[in-house]
Amino acid sequence: MARIRPTQVADDGFWDEERPSRGKKAARYAAPVAVAGIAAATIGLVPALASTGDPNLPKISAQELISKMAASDAQQMSGSVKITTDLGIPSLPGGGSIADLGGAQGGDASAAPESKLMELISGSHTLRVATDGPEKQRVSIVENAAEYSMIHNGGEIWAYDSGSNSAFHATAPKDAKAKGDHRREMPKDLRGATPQEMAKTVLSAVDDTTDVTVDGTSRVAGREAYDLLIKPKQNSDSTIGSVRIAVDADNGVPLKFTLSPKSGGKAIIDVGFTKVDFGKPKAGTFDFTPPKGAKVTEEPKAGHKDAPKGFGSKDSKDFKDAQGALSGLKVVGEGWDSVARLDTPGGAAAPTTPGGDSGPGGASGLLGGFGKEVKGKFGSGTVVSTRLVNALVTADGKVFVGAVDKDALIKAANAAK
Description:
It is a single chain. By secondary structure, the chain is α+β, with helices and mostly antiparallel strands. It is built from eight helices and 18 strands. It has two domains: 32-298, Lipoprotein localisation LolA/LolB/LppX (outer membrane lipoprotein receptor (LolB), chain A, Clam), CATH 2.50.20.10; 317-415, no CATH class. It comes from Streptomyces rugosispiralis. This is DUF2092 domain-containing protein.
């Protein structure tokens, strides 16, 4: 396997330059429907395996524990994260799954970050992470025969895939952040693959539809932690049974995030540290030089005719296309039972296969291979189900999606005007 230089990885799973560190200031937290969005988009985030007896810690209330998390000021951290995801994505009649459709569209062999996302949608993955404030982060996905790394160091972003010996490089001017040029930031898709980011998302769900309690203690990655249990109140239509967050008893940093389904069985998403240090990593952790012979793809400089507008830039074509597609988005219901309704432009749903028919009929034909036909006052449509997110696409092109059961989607479609 080609090595990422100049950093070497020690047997304990850390970069050998790393030293104990501190974590990052917790931001304000987002809503239950966002749990479904984060889970489906960034996908990944797992269980920490280190657990040897529950520690005896002083009593703390749920409000005090949430406040402790919000006050956490950990700017530096390094460690290993294990991610396990079991969304229960439906299979195609001829083999493969709905996840393969997303991967097929991006079939280039470059190391650009977006090409790795669909690989995190299922199974178990090991990540090595390091951060030293907002300007320096490193995330590596470690597989059996290869390693994929993203390194953000100031205005430089590198991504390297050792399997194909290919690299992607982007730069941004020093004032890029002030001007809203997101090329200066590491894409959130992979940066968000930590218990902290997942916890921020779900904690915004703490409202009248939510029960929040401190449910004992645990040990994660050798550290003592309080277990915060978050779940919908009774009579909820949500597919989510509970979210459990292990919070470091000393510094308030979330160490483990587990999302379990109401239907029972193993967790849908489990994310946690197996090793963690709250100390400053050496500066060399964030240095990168492409190995000899690596194929390097450079992001065109700003102003070049082929230059993209940056990661998530509001000027990019992808952003404008997505903005147009979501212009009809409405949210019905509240809290855990929220359903997002999208009236696609002209009543047309997503296209089927490349070169195939588009529009409501085409989409229904494609989804028929995954889902089940349903009928109601709204007419007819197809429901595609996973263990977390369910979606109803009606024959006239409306889309209803949420972390709720099938009956809740049909009810929302029947009530739609």
